[in-house]
Amino acid sequence: MIVHFNGMPGTGKRTVAVLLSQRLPGRLVDNHSIINEVIRTHQHGSPAYIEAVKAETGRILRLYPDEPLIFTNALAAERAEDRARLDQIADFARESGRVFWQILFGCDLEENQRRIVSPQRGPQQKLTDPVVLEGLHRDYTIYHPPAAHRLELDVTRLTAEQAADQLVELLAIR
């Protein structure tokens, strides 16, 4: 099984993914585990950066062929490279015969801005600026194409534990 969380920065994807990875058990692949490594040698957004992220994602997928994987991302429908990242994971799942769950994390802007300033985000090189986040909400739509196993989860009023509990139930994870 491959589970992919996609949503705006600061919605709690990683926090919920940590809880879910303990319940599966599964391997968490937080988007910053990839991009923070790639950005050391490539300029963010450059063609070389995009190719390096794609290569690292592919390496991770091949490295763990039998373990449940839980990916987190903030991928925009308006950006071709973002659509390609999600499609790469979905294609790998299909080609390897693994169930692919696509989960959209929704959160209203006010709550999202409250969460994004969390002190735990800074050391992980995550976005912490609520003004930038407001622009993302205005300018981008999270990529969530039709899929066989697709969920939308509004986490605005949920704790991470509550969201993980709902996912365990919805994904029929026992």
Could you name the CATH class?
Alpha Beta
Number of domains: 1
Q: Spell out the helices and strands N to C.
A: EHEHHEHEHHEH
Shape: globular
**Which homologous superfamily in CATH is the superfamily?**
P-loop containing nucleotide triphosphate hydrolases
Strand segment tally = 5
User: Low-confidence parts lasting 5 or more residues at pLDDT below 50?
Assistant: none
CATH domain topology: Rossmann fold
Termini Cα gap: 13 Å
CATH structural architecture? 3-Layer(aba) Sandwich
Radius of gyration: 15 Å
Report the portion of residues in β strands.
5-15%
Task: Give me the secondary-structure category.
Answer: alpha/beta
Q: Whole-number average pLDDT?
A: 94
The main sheet comes to:
5 strands, parallel
Strands of the largest sheet, in order across it? 2-3-1-4-5
Number of helices: 7
Q: What is the helix content?
A: 40-55%
Offer a few descriptive terms:
174 residues; 7 helices; Rossmann fold; alpha/beta
Map the helices and strands:
Blueprint: E1 2-7, H1 13-23, E2 27-29, H2 31-38, H3 47-63, E3 69-73, H4 80-95, E4 100-106, H5 109-116, H6 130-139, E5 150-154, H7 160-170
Describe the structure.
The chain is an alpha/beta fold and 174 residues long. The protein has one domain (2-170): 3-Layer(aba) Sandwich (Rossmann fold). It contains seven helices and five strands; from the N terminus they run E-H-E-H-H-E-H-E-H-H-E-H. Strands 2-3-1-4-5 form a five-stranded parallel beta sheet. It is globular, with a radius of gyration of 15 Å. The protein starts with a strand and ends with a helix. The mean pLDDT is 94.
